[in-house]
Amino acid sequence: MDSFDPAQVVVRQGHFIGGEYVDEGAGRIDVARPSDGVIYASVPRADAALVDRAVDNAWQAFRTSGWAHMAPRERARILRRFADLVAADVATLAPLEALGSTRPVRDAAAWDVPFTAEGIRFYAEFADKIGGDVLATDHDHLGMTIAEPIGVIGAIAPWNFPLVMASWKIAPALAAGNAVVLKPSEMTPFSVLRLAELAIAAGVPPGIFNVVQGDGRTTGDALVRHPRIGKVTFTGSTSTGAAIMAACAETGTKPVTLELGGKSPQIVFADAPRLADVAARIAGAITGNAGQVCVAGSRLLVERSIADELAGRIQQVFAGLRAGPTWAPGTTLPPIISDPQAARIDAIVQRTVASGARLCCGGSRVDGATPGAFYAPTMLTGVTPESEAVRAEIFGPVLTLQTFDTEDEALELARHPDYGLAAGVHTADLGRALRFVRGIEAGTVWVNRYGRTSDFMIPTGGYKRSGIGKDLGRQAYEANLRFKSVLIDMRV
Ligand code: NAD
Q1: pLDDT range class, residue 371, cuts 50, 70, 90
Q2: Is 248 a catalytic residue?
Q3: Mean pLDDT of 256-279
Q4: Known active-site residue 294
Q5: What is the residue extent of each domain of the chain?
Q6: In this structure, which of 179, 263, 289, 451 has its CB flanked by the most CB atoms within 10 Å?
Q7: Strand 398-404 relative to strand 481-489: parallel, antiparallel, unpaired?
Q8: Which helix (H) or strand (E) holds 167?
Q9: Helix, strand, or coil (residue 438)
Q10: What fold is seen in the domain 265-455?
Q11: Is the shortest distance between the CB of 444 and ligand 1 below 6 Å?
Q12: In this predicted structure, what is the pLDDT of residue 481?
């Protein structure tokens, strides 16, 4: 699928509570298409009373629907069916995802939807694999840990990959036997409603997977503060993550998983094999989804002797990208999520230039592509570690380039004072690659590649202000359980 007619996409609006659509709330929020700025729908804003209804519904379903106590194999069977339904629904889900987000429909159909289905399938297979342990004790006692679901999980998702980010939250939570109340971003609220419908169709009991709509300040805040929420799992910006952590601390020391922002370095040594491939990788890591990716490789650190050649090759790749709406065939540079966000990107670029940086390419909006907010792939040189474009998470297609002469210098430049989400090292020298794997403070280090594969066992998460805990892997499953210790005196 590489195109669709936006006028033909059917959008269901509302919250999804107890297996049904609910269209009530404290006012409505208009929702615009990033590709052309057209307001195409609205969502009701859930206030605290409506959030309470959703959480109460989830709590009742958790206690009475049988989901939490179901034979784990049966829960796995239902979740596998859920994954099958998602994969088979690509003709509906992909245009729905592309319509309201920055995901070109070709990518949504080839990656977002299948990846969402596979993530659900992956966690279905965990359902009967982790139950606890029998532990070493003296001979008169039997010591165990028993894995139990937590209860109701509050999940909050960002707008950049609406389906995939939501699935990373809901799949491990459901597989572990919890109920979920998910709040998508108010900018991309619709595709996850279809996900919730499909969960119910697969046999997940009504009330186990709920969606509430609204902004962060009203709906998100009410959700994380609700006393019946047992854990909060969040993906979004570092500042929001900090506010959520504080709210969780104030309202019951709830555990949190926080997947936050990044400013990830890509380090290229002169011996890196096949420079043309490296250039394509670097360019892809900052222009994929127009740079609106938490692990975007936004800081290029390159050995001085090859800096000019690599910069030239990257600019060639940039020049070949085609801006266009998510529904047009051949779009390789999708829109920025909103006009204010494009203005913010531009302001950071202009301020960095004003402070002495040199603009190699880009540095402005793409003229005339469509009425949407498109930003040209941009490269800045002559920057320092203090430059705003080097420090700030820009969340757009803006690459800074810094050069180095020695490994120590590269490692020093790679270090960011706040973020530690991901990094890439490109070199033919295995020992050097491993020194960087050890030396870089980041939750993920890629060597001679950039970006994840479909290996769901590899967890993702940040160091420092990039987050707490992991999505994916065994870790995300275990983070949706709590472990009860049991000690039995066998002499009685
Ligand atoms: P955001 O923090 O503005 O919003 C994220 C979600 O939080 C939205 O649903 C929003 O409505 C909600 N929210 C906002 N304020 C809230 C509050 N006070 N209480 C509860 N909920 C609240 O982030 P965004 O702009 O949607 O997403 C972009 C950010 O997400 C970037 O910083 C990016 O790096 C990060 N991100 C991180 C990862 C990761 O895995 N580390 C993945 C994707 C995106």
Answers
A1: confident
A2: no
A3: 98
A4: yes
A5: 6-260+467-485, 265-455
A6: 179
A7: unpaired
A8: helix 162-175
A9: helix
A10: Aldehyde Dehydrogenase; Chain A, domain 2 (3.40.309)
A11: no
A12: 98
In short, whether 339's Cβ falls inside 6 Å of ligand 1 is no
Helices (H) and strands (E) in the chain, counts: 16, 22
- The single-letter code of the amino acid at 14 is G
The tokens for 56 are: 């109460």
According to DSSP, residue 333 is labeled B
Nearest to 212 by CA among 204, 220, 224, 221: 220
Which pLDDT tens digit goes with each residue over 28-49? 999 999 999 999 999 999 999 9
- Please state which architecture CATH assigns to domain 6-260+467-485: 3-Layer(aba) Sandwich (3.40)
Query: Residue of the nearest CA to atom 42 in ligand 1?
Result: 294
H helices of 440-492, where?
A: 473-478
**Which of 207, 216, 217, 220 shows the shortest CA–CA distance to 180?**
207
For ligand 1, atom 20, the nearest C-alpha belongs to 220
List pLDDT tens digits, range 141-157: 999 999 999 999 999 99
Whether 119 shows a pLDDT value over 90: the answer reads yes
> Side-chain half-sphere of 462: how many Cα atoms within 13 Å?
25
Q: Is 236 in the pocket of ligand 1 (CB under 6 A)?
A: yes
